[in-house]
Amino acid sequence: MEKLILLLLKLCILVCVVHAVFEDQVGKFDWRQQYVGKVRFSHFDTQIQSSKKVLVATESNVFAALNTRTGELLWRHVDKTGPEGNIDAYLHYAQDTVLVVGNGRMLRSWDVNIGGLNWEILLDSGSFQSACLVGQQGIVKHVAVLKKTVISVHYLSNGHQKWIENLPESETVDYQTVYSDGNGQVFVLGIVPHSHITIVVYSMEDGEIIKQVSVEAPWLSNIPGSCVVVGQGMLMCVDSTTLSLNILDLHQQLQMTQIPLQSLGLEVDPGFHPSLVSHQPNPAQKPLSEFFLQLGPERILLLQLNNGQIVKLNDFKPLKVLLASFATTGEKTVAAVMSPKNATAYSINLFSADTGRRLLDTTLIFPVDPNGGKPERLHVQAFLKKDDSVGYRVMVQTEDHALTFIQQPGRVMWTREEALSDVVTMEMVDLPLTGTQAELEGEFGKKAAIQDGLLSMVLKRLSSQLIMLQAWIAHLWKLFYDARKPRSQVKNEVSIENLSRDEFNLQKMMVMVTSSGKLFGIDSKTGGILWKHYLDNVPSNAAFKLMVQRTTAHFPHPPQCTLLIKDKDTGLATLHVFNPIFGRRSQVTPPALPQPILQSLMLPLIDQDYAKVLLLVDDQYKVSAFPSTKNVLQQLQETASSIFFFIVDSSQGRLSGYRLRTDLSTEQVWEVAIPTEVQKIVFVKGKRPNEHVHSQGRVMGDRSVLYKYLNPNLLAVVTESTDLHQERSFIGILLIDGVTGRIIHKAVQRKARGPVHVVHSENWVVYEYWSTKSRRNEFSVIELYEGMELYNSTVFSSLDRPHAPQVLQQSYIFPSFISTMEATLTEKGITSRHLLIGLPSGGILSLPKMFLDPRRPEIVSEQTREENLIPYAPELIIRTEWFINYNQTVSRVRGIYTAPSGLESTCLVVAYGLDIYQTRVYPSKQFDVLKDDYDYMLISSVLFALFFATMISKRLAEVKLLNRAWR
Amino acid sequence: MASPGGQGGGGALSTRGGGGARRMKWSLELSAGNTRSRGDRQGGQGDVVYPIGYSEKPVPDTSIQETDRNLVEKRCWDVALGPLKQIPMNLFIMYMSGNTISIFPIMMVCMMAWRPIQALMSMSATFKLLESSSQQWLQGLVYLIGNLLGAALAIYKCQSMGLLPTHSSDWLAFIEPPQRMEILGGGMVL
């Protein structure tokens, strides 16, 4: 009997262990957004009239097709990161797209209709210069790829090589461009800088050199930068020193004719390098004889080359032309010109490319996003209307990597925020309380209680209760109203105005900082972008550090976030202080930072406005505080003796600790030098400041306690050897107390190599590395324990720690590479911990920390069983139900952010990389809340039924008793 | 005894031959004392004939008194030794139920612990029971010891099952996280 019951209990427990989501929960708590990155090449698919595709190849090595109606991804191909997957050239013909990838390593042809790969061939790697499609008699059959020393021609149908030829005199001549205009010849243009242009003409048929000429051009240094081919094979170059156009007939190749810009009545803006843009609508035909000449940041002209003469077709005056672009549909080619209309709008006009005349009814006016960047590129899709006139749509690419698709007469169809493909750092901020909640907060605030008397307090209470009742009734009404509508129509429109914290604080504001300098505020529940703000003066190699100075808990003070932006070249930093809920710049003026900033630290001290104090350390190791009011400075003086900070200089291999003096100067307390010629510091990880540890120890099998060594000042320093030879490479882990500089523990993993991923939390450090000896990925875990007795259970001071902790370590084999790693975080730290591991395959694995426990025994004993320790097995297995993102692949995960929610069981997770994925995880299951699919109807109906049954049976029993009494 | 209509009871149903202002077939005399006194009087007058050998006074029975006392004593000892007698049984149950924490052992331990406690709580009632015995105090002591032993056994069982908070691990949840004395920040040079 007992065994039976035990069995039943066990069954119950086993049934409860379900990590994965159910089918009906898909998309309920999670969302994913897919991005492509900053667009480098784009092409509107005009193969079919009804086609609604735009093909984009991006700087993030992504090739994708977007739906022009909705802006959604139709398909996407993500290549390797870095130069290996870099898309060098984009060629399009009919329904095939040819990409040159990885500095000329690969040639790939894609079918754009379905996004399938037609063929792929491997080329000799490296030194890619240029590529072009080669046509003959109006049909394009070949593609030519030019490298530094060699030119090869491939069939467009299968990628096979037709011929390959070494370029003559390739040691001296720098070949840069290849050009073909459909007459069976391939022109290769090379240059000897400041001397002459070399033109080699190959026959398409067999690759024989037909002609090889040199033309003097001592002023020219870069062909693709300053030359275009126009009209009947005329090479047109612009010389920015003499401010002239130089024309060379590629077929005759006699000499360059120079036409000074002044003779055309044109002037170049001072300091501006003029540039040319030409257009070749069909690779089997000659380019247009019309071209754009840009003379200044707001001056672009449309010119035409006519029998060796340059004719000015249109100078677009009085428009200030920001961007101009050609577009072809059928036989017609148009020039789209974008100019600012007023401070809040841009206008785009269409001009005929042949005549330069403006086309009627083609003006398009669209508003400027005040929180966006300046327009950078214009992608125009022209199409023929039924009445044979030209219509068009434009895709505007702005500096903040956003794509905006606009239709006539200025309707914004969609916007894609491609900056989000490169999130650098993020924070999650609690949403503010609703008006009614805030009312209550205000009512029972300290200040209110002092000011008001008893009566007014009572009145206030009554009024706030009334307001709450009103809100509740409104809520009920809304529920009732929504319930009548079909499910699909009910949409909870989230906007900044109606943002409020939910019951369990599960909905938060995600503040995301992207490398382009654009900040986003995203609702964590739906993924909708609630605000965006573009910082337009962010240097390209900036380092960001985002800090929450004041949370929403201090009503009526607005929440406050501070973003430290540091230019890595100059070291100078700026602070951007903003309200994380609305994205607006705060009223607070950040201090000017004239000195280069090394680091910043957030203190738990708060000023009279409840803002946490931020200390900024400059390169003289002087400290400045923000905010720096009198109150703050006084507090700083009082607590200065207990404020320490550390600076790690990876380039010099120096870790140093400092302490604050009362006059806000600093003194060095300790220094650890790591010889840079042997190893370099890759990471320093402290503990997260908002981490709570509920249990101070672990219960052993004999019911004694092994106390954890919970040093809040502990730093995990990871070093990698500079020698990458597989026999000699190693990685090192140093556990250093950041206050005293004492090395608590040191571990060296020999024959191991990075990249190392580290998580440091509670009393453990988990790190992952590549073992070159066994050629596999390994996890290692270090846990620190104080022993069976606590040294001091009330306070922790690093300065008073006479005993070294016990260190336990164990390693495991992991069957996959990993991209990033983070630990779950909950409100009180009662819930067990899981490690969230981003895999290169796009999965996010939730691995229970229980499996990474150095106390896992090799031999199972009664005590270890009592402790629930899993017997040691070297392999960690990836179970498919551990993937928290089921089939929602997250490409190129770079970081995982975890935040606690109001529920102890629930941890919010955001994985970001090329995509963004948000979900919730329950490491110990949902022990504090009913499941979302809990059957309220069934339970309540059963309850009611039982209640009524009791009532009825009671009545019946009474009647029966009475009857019996009468008998 | 006091049921109405009972012959010689509280209220008597009687027929009267004659006399009195009103004639009735029968009447109910509600005043019990009155009836009784009349009945007594009637008994005294010999209206009701007692059987031969009936004596109204009880005759003291002296012959059985000795054995009765012994019986009471025995009975009292039974009561006093009851808890002690249960101990071997409890030991057997303890042995059988094992040390795993599941519903049956827990129920048994609860029973084992609850019974002596209940007995100790109702000590005074037991003492009243034992009042008639001459060795009242000794018996009380034995009874107490027996119950205490039972309770001790239950506690021992709890102990062996690990239900007593005697280890430091049982107080682990109440340890507050230590207060941090130093504030530390910093990191890699940005």
Outline:
The complex is a heterodimer of chains A (967) and B (190). Chain A is mainly β and 967 residues long. In chain A, 11% of the residues lie in helices and 44% in strands.
Describe the structure using short key phrases.
heterodimer, A: 967 residues, 6-stranded antiparallel beta sheet, 4-stranded antiparallel beta sheet, 44% strand, B: 190 residues, mainly alpha, disordered N terminus, transmembrane (chain B)
Description of the molecule:
The complex is a heterodimer of chains A (967) and B (190). Chain A has 967 residues and is mainly β. Helices cover 11% and strands 44% of the residues of chain A. In chain A, a hairpin with an 8-residue loop joins strand 2 and strand 3. Chain B contains 5 helices and 4 strands, in the order ββαααααββ. A two-stranded antiparallel ribbon of chain B has the order 1-2. Helix content of chain B is 52%, strand content 6%. The N terminus of chain B is likely disordered. Chains A and B meet through helix 1, strand 41, strand 44, strand 47 and strand 56 of A and strand 3 and strand 4 of B.
Gross morphology of chain B is elongated
- Low-confidence parts of chain A: 11-18
Structural class of chain A: mainly beta
The percentage helix of chain B is 40-55%
| SS element count, helices of chain A | 8
Low-pLDDT windows of residues of chain B: 1-20, 35-45
The percent range for strand residues of chain B is: 5-15%
* SSE series of chain B: EEHHHHHEE
Q: How many helix segments of chain B?
A: 5
Radius of gyration of chain A: 34 Å
Terminal CA distance of chain A: 48 Å
Largest sheet entry of chain B: 2 strands, antiparallel
Main sheet: strand order of chain B? 1-2
